[in-house]
Amino acid sequence: MRSRFCLLLLLAALLTGCDRPSSSADGSVACWPDYDGAVVPCNIAPLNICVDGARSGSMVTVTAAEGSLSARVRFGRVRFPERRWHRLLAAAKGDTLRVGIGGSELFSFFVSPDSIDAYLTYRLIAPSYEVWDDVAIVERCLEDFGERILSDGAHTDNACMNCHTHAFGRGDLSFFHLRGAGGGTLVSRDGRLQRFTLQADSMPVAATYGDWHPSGRYAVFSWNCVVPALRAQGSRRMEVYDTASDLLVADFDTGALRTAPLVSGTDAFETFPTFSPDGRWIYFCRAPFTALPDSVEQLHYSLVRIAFDAATGCLGDTLETVWDADAQGGSASFPKLSPDGRRLLFCRSDFGTFPIWHRETTLQMLNLATGCVDSLPQLAGDASSSYHSWSSDGRWIAFASKRGDGQYGRVYFAHVAADGTVSTPFLLPQRDAQHDRLFLKSYNIPDLGSSPVPFSVRDVQRLRRDATPPASRR
Amino acid sequence: MNTNQPTVGRRLRRAEWGSALLVALLLFVFFRFCYSAHLVHREQFSLFLLAPEPLTAYARHPASLARLLGDFLTQFFCFPTAAAVILALTLTLVGVATFRLLSRWLRGWALLPAAALVAVEFVRQCGLTYPLSSSLQLLGLLLAADALVRLLRRGWRRVLLCLLLAAGSVWLFGWGDWSRPKGGPDFRVEQMLAADQDWHAGRVEALQRRLDRQPAGDTYFACWRNLLSVARGRLGETLLDGPQEGLNSLFLPVNPTTPYAVLYAANEAWFLMGDMTNAEHAAMLGMVFSPSAQGARPLMRLAEISLVNGDEAAADKYLDLLSHTLLYRRWAADRRAASRTPEVERWLRLKRSLLVQTDCVRATIDPLRSLRHLLDNHPENPFALDYLLAADLLNRDVETFADDYRRYCPQRRPDGVWAEAWLVYYNAHSVPPREVAASGIDGEVLRAFDDYVRQWKTAGGNASSLRDRFGRTYWYYFHFSDHA
After folding, report:
1. DSSP states along A346-375
2. Could you report the per-residue pLDDT of B398-412, keeping only the tens digit for each?
3. Is the pLDDT reported for residue A24 higher than 50?
4. N or C end: fewer C-beta atoms under 10 angstroms in chain B?
5. pLDDT per position as a tens digit, A5-18
6. Tens-place pLDDT, residues A234-266
């Protein structure tokens, strides 16, 4: 009897507690996320949505020039059937699809003939300021909602991990850092997962930000002494700055670490390096040394580049300024070149070097041939946009943005046409569209990959365990 | 025919239910009147969301039914009586199920293992983070085992059914938490949690009484005493009523080794003073490091902080979550922009009156800089002022105390411990008696200071002869405290 009562209680709670579509004051129906006007790849997973103000059981229809599909509103959500969705999109390339309910249009989106790299890696981390707990690096298939954990706290004694980086979108070539005992830079290369310690004797800390050389033999990194500090006013929250930073190039064939005087002096901060697609240049951010944190608002990073000789692994002896912070105003971070080498996408903040905590951070596109900067107003939101990556064919970019609530980073995508035109961004779709509203972790460093990475969480665990002295293991 | 069998059966049942009732009553009394803060704490740092995705997520993890039921029932732990009933019932049922299972073979002796299992589970439930679902797992497995035995007794043909039942039980109830039970009831932690909950609920008199009962020298309770005194505007009178350990008695630590419950509690002082960044920092870390990395109470605080900051979008994020709970949806609705109550509006205006208008960059562990920044923006902030002056004094830095006093409250007549500190300063700077008298310090305090100086010289630096009369003065602290 008691158990029946409890069951009834549970049922009642579930029924009363779950979403009831609430009618808006004027009876209109609103949906979230906002996909209106988005350009989406033809292979993207269904754009499931939340629908507010619609009666449960109402039919939402996606209509193309040829074909349509429908799904019912359940608990304020719509989940489009995956297979039928993909069939519809495959047939609707180059077409505008309209999504409507009860004869009214909710939104429309364009299906690009360009497909997107099917895999995306990102880090899931709570916005916990200077410390961490239960961080994970995850790989998500963009064609469905499949997620695979590549590394997490449960398998690494709650180690910090960051910056999983594909080499120009290649799934078979990537690295990420795993901190703490048994950690290092884990490099997936030639079918193997190897651990490297990228810290020379002269370096106070190990490598931080980095990127691949197209050959797969080298990677360029910065090491950064990162200091997190708190701001006092409003929702500005944090200021993160480097007290020192330099560049180094790692040779994964020989294990050598190289630097050069121009990128390792104490008169400047160097950070966020990346290779050009042809491997002949290293682009990075550079700022003259200044006293911190008092002068942090005078800290402006320019974009510069230095030559790189892949045959010798040596850096050049001159710096060229690509984007002058003093002339342009602001501070650059996180430069990433398009696969064709014609454009450079970077973050622009008012000052400083940690874009995700600067609400004003926007993405900017630099045309390397003309030097013109497109401020990409269509990508701007009410909070930072940063940590972007290019798809392997250069037609898509992925980036993290805290737009919306200003606290939790989410992944957005935008199409980049051959002429450099960037479309309206759209949010990473979820199996349950309400997921992002209820999720208390940020998506960090989204990085596109054309194929799944070949290692698993167990491989990482094994590698770390083998590198950890027995006394250090828990 | 054995006419004794029904009698034996009746006796067994009587023994079973009699024991069960007694155990249930004892457990209820314990959890309701001796250990309720632990249970309330568990509810505050858990979150049962009534939404399809989190509910269906239970099915994708082991022990799905046990976890679902456990989390559902835990949300009622905010009511101490309900929490005690739920836990007492659960543990009693564990005993009853064990007895039922084993009495087939052990008859009345089955009471012993039943009691032992209840005792083990009781010790586990006295832990800070041991979830209700773990006890429900155990209960579920015992009930399943009992059903299994009944089925098998009806014939070997039911083996398939038994296998299904076994597999289903493991899926629904998991394999249990076989971690070794640790320690037993921790009444110090109980008092720590109760103090925090008294503050949260606004039970200031109860908090004062609780703090008065705590042993001297405990830094955690010293922080609460000071916070309560600051909130009542009495820190100048009460600062040295008990032992202080420098800044550790003013600010709970926020560092990677701090337990999450203390991390979270550290936000309360900053929230009172109007430093929303520091408050959010502590509250967020307390939530992130808690067992489930979410909780109704930290979410409420994060929502409040965002509302005070005028960051409606961030507040909506937290209010969205709370609106999917049974017990906090009303609270969330009252704070939405569209349906905010006049009481909430008044509260917001009050909190916003202390917000800083200028920005600064400070280390995460630099409370003094934070306090001065608050005062540079609002010199009338009484909480920040008293904390800053107290920090100077507990650091035995009367020079900085004098600077801060002159800078932020030059017109305030010194009294209590502030007056005592000024006398130390005047004495160090050989300020003429006429000037000291003109400072506004009460004549009795001046005379007491003269007595202290005289006796201190006579005692030759011996603390024990001064303790009785001057043990609660700043002069005694200045000379003899180990903490600075």
Report:
1. EEEESSSS-GGG-TT-EEEEEETTT--EE-
2. 999 999 999 999 999
3. no
4. N
5. 444 444 544 444 44
6. 777 889 999 999 999 999 999 999 999 889 988
Q: Is A131 on the interface with B (CB under 8 A)?
A: yes
Name the DSSP letter for residue A20.
-
Cα–Cα distance, B480 to B484 (Å, whole number): 11
Mean pLDDT of B366-372: 93
**From the CB of residue B160, how many other CB atoms can be counted at a distance below 10 Å?**
8
Query: Hey, of B317, B328, B370, which one would you mutate to test binding to chain A, going by the most A CBs within 10 A of its CB?
Result: B317
Ramachandran class of A387: left when φ > 0, alpha when ψ lies in -120 to 50, beta otherwise: left
> What's the whole-number average pLDDT of chain B?
91
What gap in Å lies between CA A233 and CA B361, rounded to an integer?
10
How many residues are recorded in chain B? 484
Q: Which residues of B touch A293 (CB under 8 A)?
A: 361-362
A77·B360 Cβ contact <8 A: no
Residue of A nearest to B282 (CA): A128
Put simply, the answer to whether B50 touches A239 (Cβ < 8 Å) is no
The answer, for A134 touching chain B at a CB cutoff of 8 Å, is yes
What dihedral angle (degrees, nearest 10) is formed by the CA atoms of A251, A256, A260, A264?
A: 100
B25 vs A: CB within 8 A: no
Residue A423 contacts residue A378 (beta carbons within 8 Å)? yes
B288 and A232 within 8 Å at the Cβ level: the answer is: no
Q: Report strand pairing: B361-363 vs A104-112.
A: unpaired
Instruction: Show the tokens assigned to B125.
Output: 């439930």
Q: What is the pLDDT of residue A12?
A: 46
CA-nearest of B328, B331, B52, B341 to A20 is B52
Reported ipTM: 0.90
Residue A71's nearest CA partner among A63, A316, B335 is A63
Q: CB contacts < 8 Å between A and B, how many?
A: 125
